[in-house]
Specification:
Glutaredoxin, 4-stranded mixed sheet, alpha+beta, 143 residues
Length: 143
């Protein structure tokens, strides 16, 4: 698996109620199944987070891979929204706002997410129907 094969992969904090809620929403709305997931707490999530400089103990950002690039913070959220059906896909227009203005709002929420919405004792467990959208272990040949 090359970096290009990661396209549409979202690395999320699996114990965060906000993050898990977003994943559940994306699973319901992404009928084309173009977005895949790996929790930060999985072996693959930890490898990707470490490779991209995320703090494994307290990550402040989600990672989303798009065309071989790892996107963080507001860029990651807008990349996910762009892959969803309208009207959520229209949020990609917010990329016109400078990242220097978007990211502080994202980071404000990210730093307070546990206090505002809580934390799970365990990672989100996908249903049998959702399991093929989750990658937990690094695929053979991943580098």
């Amino acid at each position: 698996m090359s970096r290009d094969d990661l396209d549409g992969l979202m690395v999320f904090d699996g114990v965060c109620n906000l993050c898990s809620g977003v994943v559940q929403l994306v699973l319901r709305l992404d009928r084309r199944a173009v977005i895949r997931f790996t929790p930060l707490q999985s072996p693959f999530g930890q490898a990707l987070a470490a490779a991209h400089g995320l703090d494994l103990a307290y990550p402040e950002s989600v990672l989303v891979f798009e065309r071989g690039r790892a996107l963080e913070a507001s860029d990651a959220v807008l990349a996910i929204a762009a892959r969803l059906p309208a009207p959520l896909s229209w949020l990609r227009g917010l990329r016109a706002i400078p990242r220097a203005w978007r990211d502080p709002a994202y980071l404000w929420l990210a730093r307070r997410r546990y206090r505002l919405l809580g934390r799970r004792a365990d990672c989100l467990v996908p249903t049998a129907a959702q399991r093929d959208r989750f990658i937990l272990d690094p695929p053979p040949g991943w580098r």
